[in-house]
Amino acid sequence: MEPFGAEQGIYKDVDVLDPEPDTYKPTELPEREDELSRIHSALRPITLGGSPRNILVYGPTGQGKTVGVDLKTEQLQQWADSESDVSLTVLRVSCKGAGKSWNVLAALVKQAREARYGKTVEKPRGPTKVELFEMLSDDLQAIGGMIIIVLDEIDGIQEDDYVLYELPRASIDSVSIGVIGITNDYQFHENLDADIRSSLGSREVVFSPYDADQLRDILARRAARALRDTYFEDEIKDSEHLQSDVLSGDVIPLCAALAGQDTGDARQAIHLLSTACDLALDDGSDIVTESHVRKAREEIQEETIGKGIRGETIQRKIALLTALESELSGDAPEGTTQLYRRYKRFTKQIGADTYQQGTFREKLNDLAHGNILEGDRRGRGRGRGMTNMYSLSVDPDLVIDKVGDDNRLSQITERFE
Ligand SMILES: Nc1ncnc2c1ncn2[C@@H]1O[C@H](COP(=O)(O)OP(=O)(O)OP(=O)(O)O)[C@@H](O)[C@H]1O
User: Fold this and answer.
1) How large is the ipTM?
2) Rounded distance between C-alpha atoms, residue 180 and residue 132, angstroms
């Protein structure tokens, strides 16, 4: 067994390559100068004796929205604490998975009370959302002054938007409230109620996807802090000026190009670089190479696909098993009719519902949309129209492993192991 602590480190500070903001937060975002200056101007009235504007921040995942809003609100807090007599309180709540306004309000009451009393308190239980809103108003009034409420991932509020409607309009004696809503869900953003849009989104700040050049610079700055013998020539902090004894020259351009061609997601680019560095360490290598990046990408893709398969419904998993059996018996690709025969046998074996062939075909198409199956449209012969032929587009062992985790289906997958 390997001993801990014996690894020849390529790292100077391993946490800097952790994309989670709780572990490491960058102190500068030069790629977001324009967006940060729009947030700045919406918050500036506070420094001029006025009230903050509400802001709606929108953009795809991993674009620095959360970290950008954090940096600006922290900068304002510092100004308020050290250079002014403005009383400023910033409350931050993630609405991820909240579902209802009630959950967001309960989290806000907890945060407000912690700010008010300076100690940890329990989330309230029992009151209705209207009562919670009154409780929150009382707490905010007691805190007083300027209060900024950051609601991250507001698309997590799915079922009722009460809090998004009420908060930006709240009128509480001796308090000025500014709400900053953040979302990466285009559909949610587009479907927002017009009243909410006009009050919450009085200032809209859009974070558009990074291109490969920007991702290169972001990665270069992270690498210079995270890795040993890696630094900027002449203190010029861009990828052109990065020197490293640890990274081979093509590593950062490759990570940036791969992430850039997918979604321009900085989180994904950083995760790719850190996985490549970990693989180099596993190999006992002192240098991270292009092949570590390619292997890291494969690993990450497998992990993502594996998670996707595990999260599928039982009917889609059974549909996937029909394609697996077809693959392993050398019959793939097969059409719906052949796969449906396998499906009926499987559902009977495990006592699951057997859907009609049309519904089964929908499950196959869903899997093809998720790139787990490949659906190829072919002619059935003269005058007989087209049919879809399906085959697995992922590793059969991965399917056996992930579907086999489901107890109800392990009796089928065991046969393939
Ligand atoms: N310009 C940048 N410079 C350095 N790091 C960045 C930059 N933009 C994003 N990051 C990093 O990328 C990761 C994701 O950033 P962040 O959480 O702010 O994205 P987001 O747009 O809020 O994404 P989501 O919508 O998924 O929450 C973080 O580790 C962050 O530090």
Assistant:
1) 0.99
2) 20
